[in-house]
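Lab notebook, page 48
Experiment: co-folding of the full assembly
Goal: obtain a model of how the components sit together before planning crosslinking
Operator: M.T.
Materials (sequences as entered):
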Amino acid sequence: MKKLTRTASGLNGSIDIPGDKSISHRSVMFGSLAKGKTTVENFLPGEDCLSTISCFRKLGVEIEQQVSSVTIYGKGMDSLKEPSDVLDVGNSGTTARLMMGILSGLPIHTVLIGDASIAKRPMKRVTGPLRDMGASIQGNQDGNFTPISIQGGNLKGLNFVSPVASAQVKSAILLAGLQANGRTTVEEPFKSRDHTERMLKAFGVDLEVDGNTISLDGKQELKSDLHIVVPGDISSAAFFLVAGAIVPRSRITLRRVGLNPTRTGILDVLKSMGASLTYSNVTEDGPEPYADITVETSELKGVEISGDIIPRLIDEIPIIALMATQASGTTVIKDAEELKVKETNRIDTVVNELKKLGADITATEDGMIINGGTKLEGAVLDSYGDHRIGMMGAIASLIANGETVLENEEAINVSYPSFFEHLNRLQG
Ligand code: S3P
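Observation: model returned without errors.
Model output:
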């Protein structure tokens, strides 16, 4: 439980945004599959990414980790060994689903488990097509929920049209496809984050991207002598981008924020709502662009958020909803049913928690409607074990009258272990 109060003097100064969670996971996964040494700088030492390291160690990969520096001594996919223990993905959907793709291609038996939230998250979207490729998969409710048991190997390529724009689904099928006989193609309705495609290319994989369709031939090897510099996570930066815009008398700089265009929907929304953002030190020479972003207190107005921008900001909707409570007019968020299958049902948890603070917010089937311009009042909030709901509550406390109590704040360690340290620093 954490007691938080309104900030008197605004947020000022600068912070280094911790490494991107999606890219950190992939650096360990692909480094473990590759032949050769991979070193990773600015790795995110959050609980989710530590779950990925622990899974690959159990598969026999030698991995050294010191906070945000990681070295992976990869010996190729064939060297991964059948573990004597279950693989525990903790709270991490990315670990669960990408591992399923990798494990389906290996001639070994594995069992994946996770925490209470993972046990409620749908896995059929991945286990269905992996079965079609030839993997033998069992799990609760016909392979839709953990625990999931996989006997992999001997896969054939698949032509897969995904009903959801999900990088986890796309990546799982591509990672299985890499080990299959023949060619694998994944088509998605909208473009989801493309870190897998960018990083596989860096590991020497030949893949073809044509709009929202990705294809690759099976039986390709990953090679490494790579040093990966992970940019800051825009999904973590989002909490402070919004804080800087809504807390009076603020001006903060967030350093090394990843600017992959499949992730920058939050910046488009901030701009269209009227936030003052400036960019400096833009770096575009590596596989993932990044820059420093300065945000200042701004007059905001409501907007409609729907369609193909949704996958580009899906993880930022909780903090966008808080921002909308401070904007003039109405903000409508549509086409975001995927929120229901995140670490919590984020339509319910966002609406519940913001209502406790006095916000005018209504849940809809595929999103929410927020009437802005509300003065928030302190309340007892809960993260419900969801890191992004916890951080939304903590940022809300900065503008709410009186005291806000945040229960289960430790969930924030999943993606941003230094969150409160950064918040204290910006409060001066
Ligand atoms: C992620 C993809 C997204 C995102 C998650 C991380 C990834 O999930 O919400 O936090 O690293 O591939 P979906 O693929 O389910 O949309």
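Interpretation: The chain has two domains: 2-19+231-426, 21-229.
Next step: discuss with group before ordering constructs.
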